[in-house]
Amino acid sequence: MNSRREHFGSRAAVIMAMAGSAIGLGNIWRFPYIVGEYGGAAFVLAFVICSIFISIPILLCESVIGRRSHQNTFGAMQTLAPGTGWKWLGLLTVITPIIIVSYYSVVGGWSIAYLFKALTFQFRPEDAESVSGIFGLFVSSALPPVLCHLLFIGICSLIVFLGVKKGIEKFSKTTMPVLFVLIVLIAVYSLTLPGSGEGVRYLLAPDFSKLTPKAWASALGQSFFSLSLGVGTMLTYSSYVSSKEDLVLSGAGTALSDLVFAVLAGFAIMPAVFAGGITPGAGPGLVFETLPYIFAKMGDAAPVASAVVAVLFFLTILVAALSSAISMVEVGVAYLSEEKGVSRGKATLGIFLFACILGIFCSLSFGPLSSFRILGNSLFDFCDKLCSNYLMVLGALLFSVFAGWKIKKEDFLDELSNSGSIKGRGVLNATIYYLIKFVAPVAILLIFVLGLFG
Ligand code: PHE
To answer: What is the whole-number distance in angstroms between the Cα of residue 125 and the centre of ligand 1?
Structure first.
């Protein structure tokens, strides 16, 4: 084991850092919407089933690979399967998060701009009708979103530069509890608005007839993206987990926090959307158009409350996006500093510059460069589709094949049980192993195919 490497200080730190990676835009702008779309509580049940039987086992396989090797993704493959082609999986999972963070940071930048708008009372009742159009104007303008992107990736790189303990651990431990308090406060407020009951029904009324194969595929895809799987972030974070930590407990804690936050985000957003008499959509429109419209309209009856909630809401998005983005940057920094021998500062600077440049082009693809298309997509959409629909899925598939078929079963179980010191989990750990070996690869291929033709 590499003794120079830093370690997270406690189980709480591990869970907060991993939950920080997991909780992000996926929880806030996709989960609430697809829950309503695919049958409310029935979909939540499908999501939980997919998480328990497939996503958590894959999270654990990344955890085992990371903690067993105490290496970055590339080094992990070289250590556990020396001289084999598995190093390409290590490299793939260095490249994917660097691409993701480049465009994720553009959206992170939007949340900085909207936090500023909320702080300067720009969602006024008299502007309610025009507030949603402002988003289109903002993203298609050249300089403001680019500057916000640079600010976002700058803050994120600074946190990573400070190190695993002083940067990532400290940031996650301070912000995660605050994030939960904020989302609970917003949810409580949202639930007290007149007409919010419709939103609760939208989220919860179970409709099992909507659980189509496509809904199952979405549940699995969502739990995958939400748990940051297949891109080496969980592997890299696990490589900083001490040999005494219980991987199963910290994995379960991470998944539970992610689910609870997603459900709370649903209660924060949907009741307010329905109280405002709007039909919800997904993605940027929900967060940057619909909600500002609602904040502006609420300003009529409760100007102070609506301004405060708007600030809290965009702050929540910003912090959630930052803690996810730092996990993506760390993958590349760990790789460059450990494999290429550069200092942490230079490695962070390298990733920062790459993400700045690709992100600038992604940002401009909403405006001045919108006519530049790759296979019919803008650069932003192309990067997003390439990563979420293909590279992440491929990464997760290969991780499960690697853990299930390349690593020896005894070694895998040895790592899960901390060399036998965690007792009484034989059946559970063996079940996890078989889920990784047989169920996960088949299920991942299935989502992939359903995603292509569904
Ligand atoms: N899980 C994050 C979210 O829900 C996204 C993410 C993907 C983070 C891949 C890290 C790696 O927004």
So the answer is: 34
Averaged pLDDT for residues 164-174: 97
Token code pair at residue 384? 């997003």
Q: Which domains does the chain have, with CATH numbers?
A: 11-453 (1.10.4160.10)
Query: Are the CB atoms for 266 and 91 separated by under 8 Å?
Result: no
Q: Which of 241, 224, 106 is closest to 168 using CA atoms?
A: 241
Question: What pLDDT digit, counting tens, does each position of 296-325 carry?
Answer: 888 888 888 889 999 999 999 999 999 999
Q: Atom 10 (ligand 1): residue with closest C-alpha?
A: 228
Query: Alpha-carbon distance 344 to 206, whole Å?
Result: 49
Q: Where does the pLDDT of residue 217 fall: very low under 50, low under 70, confident under 90, or very high at 90 and above?
A: confident
DSSP structure class, residue 251 = H
Burial of 96 (0-12, 13-18, 19+ CB in 10 A): buried
Closest ligand 1 atom, CA of 324?
8
Type of residue at 369: L
Range 344-371 average pLDDT: 97
Q: In ligand 1, which atom is closest to the CA atom of 230?
A: 9
Tell me if residue 276 falls in helix, strand or coil. Answer: coil
Between CA 309 and CA 28 the distance in angstroms is 15
Higher-pLDDT residue of 450 and 55 is: 55
Q: 360-387, pLDDT tens digit by residue?
A: 999 999 999 999 999 999 999 999 989 9
d(CA 292, CA 362): 24
CA dihedral 173, 175, 180, 182 (to 10 degrees): 160
Distance CA 1, CA 57 (A): 24
